[in-house]
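Hey team,

Sharing the TIGR01212 family radical SAM protein run so nobody has to redo it. Sequence (319 residues) first:
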Amino acid sequence: MYANSPPAHFNERRYFAWNDWVKRTHGGRIQKVSLDAGFTCPNRDGKLGRGGCSFCNNAAFTPSYLAGTRELHAQLATGIAFMQHRYTGTTRYLAYFQAYSNTYADLAELKALYAQALSHPGISGLAIGTRPDCLPDAVLDHLAELARDHMIELEIGIESCDDNVLAECRRGHDFACSVDAIERAASRGLQITAHMLFGLPGETRASVQTGARKLGALPLAAIKFHQLQIVRGTRLAMEWKRQPGSIALLSLDEYLDWIVDTLEYLPDSVRVQRLGSDVPPTQRVLPERGDRQLDLPAQLSARLSARGTWQGRLHGASS
Ligand code: SF4
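Structure output:
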């Protein structure tokens, strides 16, 4: 039993855009101010591995305004000033613990860092990006406590729902680990954003469609989609250098179809927060690829329309 048409809250986009949700529930705009709080991750410090996931180079998406200081208030002040200039109509700023795995430290250290960010007068909440295997119950309990008074968004790097793909990119955890973390976080009332990366070696349209059914069953509040880009300084870049063309990158059409395939199985309540990566051209091995951010929402709506579908149309279909 599926819906016959897109729900009204999609505003004719055929998917539930995060910005529309923000406008409706908070008024104005919410911007995330990226932070580098000095974390590392277990896939880099030797606990699970060294060298990181095959696609990862955090420097590629760390804003330049973070260079030079680790002091959180200084980073927040610079980031807010930058965003006030660029995005008018912003009503709230979230401190975005973005670089590396931002729950990978002792609880006391985490509490101090989160409290420091929340004490900045311009900040009304936190967005915290992390791996699913860095979310012990004690950390989730603390985040749930913070969420009583602040907007707290927990962004969990799932990347792929296929264990072979996760192993191939040396992720160091499987999909079951993501399911477990998401369920434990959601049981505490936390808002969870899934971070997905499409186009990793070994991923296929069929594996994405299988994964979509699994994602659709999870208690997600939001989702972010990214297309694989080969970023300088990564294992994939080394592989590309050894054998140019050895990694098949998704065309725009393929990428949009994979997003559509996924959205069809997600509930219509899941906010679509991001539609693509925007690694600076100088950081990419193929600089001509990837500069499509502004066009993606319209292109996705057009693709959903051309396929006669919308987010949630198949939600609840058995696998
Ligand atoms: S993607 Fe995340 S988990 Fe993987 S190496 Fe980079 S920081 Fe670590």
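The first helix runs from residue 18 to 26.

Ping me if you want the raw files.
A.
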